[in-house]
């Protein structure tokens, strides 16, 4: 929903903090998820993720969520699906060149990033190309596995 997209960007700071708390809880649950099997829980978790992120961010469930780096503006709402934007066609008033009824998602991303007030703007990190094979899988669980693996690597050093 477009209105909620704008709301989330305007409230990027506290929403990202809530997101961080949720991520910590999920990472702590990694041993439980692993014992059940990530494949088995992917669909139910994806359902919750779709409802939450669909409502708040107009997420398209690409499975490789980067909204933490884009000021909570989902890049998959860009008609060109640019993961590193904006394109060269942003209108003077900040609207999208393809769909003039909406703001350019990358203009919103920059606004959301400024609200985070982090030391470095995470939007400055170059994002890898989208992997369409991961569409419709849980980005949350992917992030949990990545975070748990890097935590385990630090512990074993
Ligand atoms: S103007 Fe912005 S949202 Fe529109 S196509 Fe270009 S980068 Fe994407």
Describe this structure in words.
With 157 residues, the protein is mainly alpha-helical. It has six helices and no strands. The longest helix is centred in the N-terminal third of the chain and has 20 residues, at 38-57. Bound molecules: iron/sulfur cluster (SF4). Iron/sulfur cluster binds next to helix 5. Residues 78-80, 82, 85-87, 89-90, 96-98, 104-106 line the site of iron/sulfur cluster.
Short summary of the structure?
The chain has 157 residues and is mainly alpha-helical. 53% of the residues lie in helices and 0% in strands.
Secondary-structure element order, as H and E?
HHHHHH
| Overall pLDDT | 92
Main β sheet profile: none
The number of helical runs is: 6
* Coarse shape: globular
State the secondary-structure class.
mainly alpha
Distance between the termini: 45 Å
Low-confidence stretches: none
How many extended strands? 0
Q: What is the number of domains?
A: 1
Helix content: 40-55%
């Amino acid at each position: 929903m477009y209105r909620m997209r704008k709301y989330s960007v305007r409230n990027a700071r506290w929403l990202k903090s809530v997101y961080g708390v949720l991520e910590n809880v999920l990472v702590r649950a990694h041993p439980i998820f692993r014992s059940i099997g990530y494949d088995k829980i992917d669909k139910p978790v994806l359902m919750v993720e779709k409802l939450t992120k669909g409502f708040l961010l107009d997420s398209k469930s690409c499975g490789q969520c980067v909204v933490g780096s884009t000021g909570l503006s989902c890049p998959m709402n860009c008609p060109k699906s640019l993961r590193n934007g904006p394109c060269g066609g942003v209108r003077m008033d900040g609207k999208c060149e393809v769909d003039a009824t909406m703001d350019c998602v990358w203009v919103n991303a920059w606004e959301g990033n400024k609200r985070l007030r982090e030391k470095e703007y995470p939007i400055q990190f170059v994002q890898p190309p989208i992997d369409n094979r991961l569409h419709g899988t849980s980005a949350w669980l992917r992030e949990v596995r990545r975070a748990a693996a890097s935590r385990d690597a630090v512990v074993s050093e």
